[in-house]
Amino acid sequence: MLEAHSYLLGENAIVIALNTDKPSPSEQRRLFALTISLQHSSAFIDIVPAKASVTAYLAEPAQYNYWLKKAMLLWEESEEVAFDVKTHHIEAIYGGKDGPDLEDVALRLNMSAKQVVHMHSEYTYQVEFLGFLPGFAYLGSLPEHLQLPRKVTPRKQVPKGSVAIAEDLSAIYPSSSPGGWHLLARCNNTLFDPTLTPPSLFAPGDKVKFIPHKEGLC
Amino acid sequence: MLRVIKSGVLASFQDIGRFGYRHYGVCRSGALDPFAVCLANILLDNPPHLGVIEVTIGLCEFEFTQPCNFALTGACLNAKLAGKAIYPGWRYYANKGDTLSFATSAHAQRAYLSVQGGFELDPVLSSYATDLQASFGGLQGRALQSGDVLHFQNTQNKLAPLGVKQPEYKKQVRVLKGPHCDKLPQGSFERFINNHWRVSEASNRMGCRLSSDKPLAHDVSVATQAVHPGVIQVPPSGEPIVLLNDCQTTGGYPILATVIDADIRMFSQLGANQHCNFVECDLAHARKASDKLSAHLAQFTLAKNNN
To answer: Topology of domain A4-77, per CATH?
Structure first.
């Protein structure tokens, strides 16, 4: 059975999509490998990985037929090669005013706040993809024991640098914005600065580990 | 300099958009009618992709503090130069002290204003476009405000008046069938084509929201994937959203259709409570329509240089 397919979205977007919405870690690593092999070509103006797909925007739409086939060949050849990934260590102040939902999350999960902090910071996350806001990285996957649905009523203003969780993901808000995730902590890192090259601290595939800061719960 | 006397509803610097940064979550931004940006620049012998002012709705006023050749494209928002009506698709000459004002129109939403030599702007992430959500690009990452002073090169000579025919803005939009039609309830795409849609008041530069008394409600979920301007998503409510330039880079609603590239510009002029409808198109005709727009620019450039 085929595990992926390709199609043209609009006039210039080549989409390589897995036949599942919930890729295995191995499939996800192959998607990153595919992203990198597509980046080696100069045919694309943008290459955007997502949960279970990679979309590559052609500079020259007339080449779509060639790339629909070629991208599938690249997918089939893509292996879970260990490529160079950056690991980011992010100091996070858990609880209190920096993580206003920590106590509530602990209560709902039947854990102590300390256990939540321990579990959230013990794990190494991977940037699955970026979206929502510039520099907003979806970090997967959150340990199953920490998974909760989004908040029923989103906050009108989530402070910049907030470390949050929802469903099977964690994230850091790169700028203040409305948001429905549970806020566990806050960090002082700049996640997005349009004057820097690259503008985003995180790139798809990067690893992220949180280090509890002594100013907060640890 | 061009002084902003009244900023109106929304006026911002835009160009044809920001490319190459979507994997960091950076949206395209840029003019809702990129074709009008190119025309406005070519009218003044500027490179076609310089930053221009996108005027939304109107009700704004500018003062030229130095003589200036400028061009106006997009739709007619009943603009006046020193009290005299001026029209889109033309270049004009302003004397020092002249006022340029925009009224409004019941039928149109956006006009584009360029100056000879271009405005003095620093590109951010390779574009002059203002990212209004993330607050960067254009002028300090924000919409124009009254009191702003916009710099540009001194005009050397008064250029002769020159006009160009602009392609029509239509309320019928051509679309390609989307990838999730098989997952949506049977006949969703056909109903989308057969319905008449009303533009909702909640529409903005991120997306044009459509409503109808026969929405396309569903309970289909798809994995989040990359989306871009022109993609038509259907949330469970069944009221489709045509994504526009400020849309997010990824989306999790099923994709019913995509607007052909040549027709995305129609949404620059569709205002709240106006109606529009969609017709199916194939890829070959979609490409032909884009080529036709490119040919229009090329022919105009050629004709202008030969005269």
So the answer is: Gyrase A; domain 2 (3.30.1360)
B7 plus B154 within the same structural domain: yes
Task: Check CB contact under 8 Å for A130 and B176.
Answer: no
Contact A129 B124 (CB under 8 A): no
- Please say which residue of B142, B163, B184 terminates a domain: B163
Res B263: pLDDT: 98
Provide the ipTM.
0.95
Residue A139, pLDDT score: 97
Calculate the alpha carbon distances from A152 to A96, A156, A177 in Å. 21, 13, 17
As a whole number of Å, the CA-based R_g of chain B is 20
How does the average pLDDT of chain B come out, rounded? 96
Domain membership of residue B203 as a residue range: 172-287
Give dist(CA B70, CA B40) in Å, integer.
8
Nearest to B71 by CA among B33, B116, B104, B131: B116
Cβ–Cβ under 8 Å, residues B262 and B287: no
**What are the pLDDT digits (tens) for A47-70?**
999 989 999 999 999 999 999 999
For residue B137, the chain A residues in CB contact (below 8 A) are: 194
Q: What is the pLDDT of residues A112-146, one digit of tens each?
A: 999 999 999 999 999 999 999 999 999 998 999 99
Domain A87-212 in this protein, CATH class = mainly beta
Q: Which amino acid is at B80?
A: K
Residue B78: how many other CB atoms lie within 10 Å: 15
pTM: 0.95
In this structure, what token pair is assigned to residue A25?
A: 């870690």
Residue A195: per-residue pLDDT = 95
The DSSP code for A149 is P
CB–CB contact A136 B25 (8 Å) = yes
End-to-end alpha carbon distance in chain A: 47
Among A128, A135, A205, CA closest to A170: A128
Average pLDDT over residues B32-52: 97
